Amino acid sequence: MSTTEQPPATELDARYSSEGATARPWPETAAVLTDAPLYWLSTVHPDGRPHVTPLIGVWSQGALHFCTGPQERKARNLAANPEVVLTTGANTLDSGFDVVVEGRADRVTDHGRLTALAREWEAKYGADWHFDVEDGSFVQAEAGHAHVFAVHPRTAFGFGKGEPYSQTRYRFT
């Protein structure tokens, strides 16, 4: 979290938490978002049907960033409705910490910001994920152009699994 970001209001939902559980602090949740190798993106088709897909991404400057080709289903869905849910965590029942981020996917086109994000992508995922920046997009010779989106959380949830179970809500202003 950068020094200019305001920490979210954080509250434990006792209805879905073990007795004695405490709210998980936001920096712990942000670390899960930073370190996750894979995220699941939920968008909505123009006709209202849900669409879910796994993808890679980068948590940076208070937002979860992902990219997609302009003709891919998720890009077409976002053109009609930019509201999304991104999830990540451990696919286990009795251990781990899952995170759900709700927000709006806004396209990133600033050359300097995209260049910084391209460096972060490569640092996280390796040289196979090297991107150049051109015309407000990521570019790879083999794959072509990809639009980059930032999702600043409006609300996020953290689900602690195992003892204690916990559900923490984070509300952003």
In a few lines, what is going on in this structure?
By secondary structure, this protein is an alpha+beta fold. The chain contains three helices and eleven strands; from the N terminus they run βαββββαββαββββ.
Overview of this structure, please?
There is one protein chain. The chain has a single domain (9-171), classed as Electron Transport, Fmn-binding Protein, Chain A (Pnp Oxidase, Chain A). A hairpin with a 2-residue loop joins strand 4 and strand 5 (63-68). By secondary structure, it is an alpha+beta fold. The chain is built from 3 helices and 11 strands, in the order βαββββαββαββββ. Strands 1, 2, 3, 4, 5, 6, 7, 8, 9, 10 and 11 form an 11-stranded antiparallel beta sheet that branches. Residues 27-154 form the Pyridoxamine 5'-phosphate oxidase N-terminal domain. It holds the Pfam family PNPOx_N. Residues 1-24 are annotated as: Disordered.
List key phrases describing it.
Pnp Oxidase, Chain A; 11-stranded antiparallel beta sheet; Pyridox_Oxase_N; alpha+beta; 11 strands; F420H2_bilvrd_red/Heme_oxyg
Tally of individual domains = 1
Strand content: 35-45%
Task: State the shape.
Answer: globular
Integer average pLDDT: 95
Going by CATH, the architecture would be: Roll
The amount of helix comes to 10-25%
List the total number of helices.
Answer: 3
Strands, count: 11
User: What is the CATH fold-level name?
Assistant: Pnp Oxidase, Chain A
Q: Secondary-structure element order, as H and E?
A: EHEEEEHEEHEEEE
Question: In angstroms, what is the radius of gyration?
Answer: 17 Å
Oligomeric organization of the protein chains:
single chain
**Main sheet record:** 11 strands, antiparallel
State the secondary-structure class.
alpha+beta
InterPro entries: F420H2_bilvrd_red/Heme_oxyg, Pyridox_Oxase_N, Split_barrel_FMN-bd
Pfam families: PNPOx_N (PF01243)
Protein name: Pyridoxamine 5'-phosphate oxidase family protein
Organism: Streptomyces rubiginosohelvolus
